[in-house]
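debug: dumping io for the single-chain case to check the tokenizer round-trip. Nothing else runs in this session.
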Amino acid sequence: MFGLFKKKSKVEILQKKYQTLMNEWHQLSKINRKESDQKYAEAQRILSEIETLKNI
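debug: decoded output
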């Protein structure tokens, strides 16, 4: 209950967004290749941002 109001860190927020994008990418890979490639590229940008924040 005490963790209810805990603020998420920037890394946690980015990891959640990365996971969401990867799920969307996987779904789109079966339907629309161009859009799936765009989602994958965006996910990779977020992953590099996560790695940068972890190295600081």
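debug: round-trip ok. The chain has a mean pLDDT of 92.
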